[in-house]
Amino acid sequence: QVQLVESGGGLVQAGGSLRLSCAASGITFSANVMSWHRQAPGKERELVAVIGSSGSTNYADSAKGRFTISRDNAKNTVYLQMNGLKPEDTAVYYCSVYLPISGRFWGQGTQVTVSS
């Protein structure tokens, strides 16, 4: 079955950096579009960054210039490097994959807290 396991969250001061990882199993990882989303308390879940099977990337405006999504197909892992973190980046971050027949799958999430 599809499993997505995030890691790398934590508490960091404003201006700091974190790198999130998401290890995937149960899918043909290299063939799939992977994405990171986040959900802050009291807010809807929002897309942060997407990486295609070819390595093409897209970012939410809030992430452009600060976050970098990447993938390692040999390790079935997608990363989110976050630099210049702000208190408004505080959220639970989720890894996700959409499979055409099965639908969207989510990881369990990893908490990122940025203190001012």
Q: Can you characterise this structure?
A:
By secondary structure, the protein is mainly β. It is 0% helix and 54% strand. The strands form two sheets. Strands 2, 4, 5, 6, 9, 10 and 11 form a seven-stranded mixed beta sheet that branches. Strands 1-3-8-7 form a four-stranded antiparallel beta sheet, with no helix packed on it. β5 (46-51) and β6 form a beta hairpin.
What's the arrangement of secondary structure elements?
Elements: E1 3-7, E2 10-13, E3 18-25, E4 34-39, E5 46-51, E6 57-59, E7 67-72, E8 77-82, E9 91-99, E10 103-106, E11 110-115
Parallel strand pairs: 2-11
Antiparallel strand pairs: 1-3, 3-8, 4-5, 4-9, 5-6, 7-8, 9-10, 9-11
Low-confidence stretches: none
Mean pLDDT: 97
What general form does the structure show? globular
CA(first)-CA(last) distance:
40 Å
**Strand tally, please?**
11
SSE sequence, one letter per element? EEEEEEEEEEE
Radius of gyration: 13 Å
Q: Structural class of the helices, strands and pairings? A: mainly beta
Task: Tell me about the largest β-sheet.
Answer: 7 strands, mixed
User: Helicity level, as a percent range?
Assistant: under 10%
Count, helices? 0
Strand content: over 45%
Summarize the structure.
By secondary structure, this protein is an all-beta fold.
List keywords for this structure.
11 strands; seven-stranded mixed β-sheet; 0% helix; 116 residues; mainly beta
